[in-house]
Amino acid sequence: MLVSLYLHNFALVDDLSIEFFEGLNVLSGETGAGKSVLIGAINLILGERSSIEQIRSGEDLARVEAIFHCSPEYSPVMELLKSYGLSPETEIVVSREISQHGRNICRINGRAVPLTALKELGNLLVDLHGQHNHQSLLKTEHHLLLLDDFGGTNLAKCKDTYLKIYNQLQQIRQKLKLLGRNKDEREKKLELLRFQRDEITAARLDEAEEENLNRRLMVLDHMESLLNLVNRAYMEIYEGNHHSEAIVDKLNQIRTEMVSLQGVDPKLEGYTAALEEAITGLSELSHDLFAYRENLDFYPEEKCEIENRLEIYRRMKRKYGPTLNEVLALAEKCNLEINALENSEAQAQLLENEEIIQLQKLSEQARALNLLRKKAALLLEQGVTAALKDLGMQEASFSVAFAEREVADQTGIDKVEFLFSSNRGEPLKPLARIISAGEMARVMLALKSLLAAQDRIPILIFDEIDSGIGGKTAQKVAEKMAALGVKHQIICVTHSSQIASAADHHYYIYKEVVGERTCTRVRYLKNESRIAEIARLLDGGSADNLSLQHAAELLSKNRRPE
Fold this sequence. Notes:
Layout: E1 2-10, E2 13-19, E3 24-29, H1 35-45, E4 61-69, H2 75-83, E5 91-99, E6 104-108, E7 111-113, H3 115-125, E8 126-129, H4 141-179, H5 183-202, H6 207-221, H7 223-239, H8 247-260, H9 268-294, H10 302-320, H11 324-342, H12 344-390, E9 397-409, E10 412-421, E11 429-430, H13 431-434, H14 437-451, E12 459-463, H15 471-484, E13 489-493, H16 497-501, E14 505-514, E15 517-525, H17 527-539, H18 545-558
Parallel strand pairs: 3-13, 3-14, 8-12, 12-13
Antiparallel strand pairs: 1-2, 1-4, 4-5, 5-6, 6-7, 9-10, 10-11, 14-15
């Protein structure tokens, strides 16, 4: 339900807060007092377009805020809140700000959200009917849902069974898609997988080989420098040249002299041992250098062969990589898929047979659902037409048109649209195209009175539903709205004394001048003040004693028992 509505600098409103209650809430007042302002504010909360003209003259910013209370069992609202990253709270605060600079800020529970979030939430919480366009009957896609709701338990069970079969069929088709829809598709997929696997396998890729090849290529690229360095090191350490002796020969001479002087000073024995160790190490090093030099051989084609082999690695990584591990993993994955597909022929055949069976079941269940819907449609047509007669539309007729979908979806094979004609002899036409605002409100009231127990939208708002009616028809409208108020919260702008007297709560909208500025005000009516307002609605002016007496009687007659 709508708990409260707050307006700040909106149209003629400077600062206004209204608390609403369960049941039928009625707004009345003189023409131009600002009733439409309140409906316009609610439309903003429901995600309708805003205009800077809605901002109070002389102000920069207008703000509208509504607090809704929603049952936690109403899962569509809870799921919507989650989808926008909001906690699924039972109290929902919706606000909207518009500024002269064009800024438009929407919030739900304090968090900024796009305008579409307000529209989606509004569609779940409120049905507004009158001179505005937030009307579920204008949306043809809602007609099937309304019909199904009216169809009751048997139709709901049939619809659930249909949906289960439909979901099973989709699961089968998804499995077939993974296997390949048919034999030709599977063969094409197998051909691709085998090509990829065989190409990778034929390349004989190995991480160690790739590393060794890269190292060998680097050696070949620096072969001349390596040979020069090793030759020079070997010559200096072991062979020497005509300019100087080898380092090993020089050290051997020093060792010989040191041995000859050991008798003079025994300390030289330790130095001699260290020198001998150094000579031995250098000798071994020279032999290693010689061997290394001998192994630095290569043949002219070797570098080209290595580069060609490394290009295979690079090509495989470009095609299947980007790393070698990923290339090898892909080959393994291809192998697994090939095995699965090669063994899938029998499984695919079973699934295709099951698909045929499920399609048959779905078709049968869709036909059963269609029959139940047509039975419900006939009852709905009769009920709405009778209710419209009660509401003063004696010549109106209402029909439910069926068309068949080219492809069944999760709702069945049926496309449904409500048709309406307000005059005898006139052809039935789509409801959304030809109906007037007053007619729309009464059609919705007729529908809602029939769907009260099943209807999911908790708040109904009627803007001047009494336009052009009076007497018995207005009394019937009042009775239907009061009955509807048992299951829904109703907010109704009215000029009808009958509707006003049937309300659970009555608000009076008026204007007053404050500091040379006109402001819209709201007063909650009780007792004598309410009788006085109903009397004003009865005679259209200042109420006399007879009008007051008549108003009291009307209020007593229409008041719902406590």
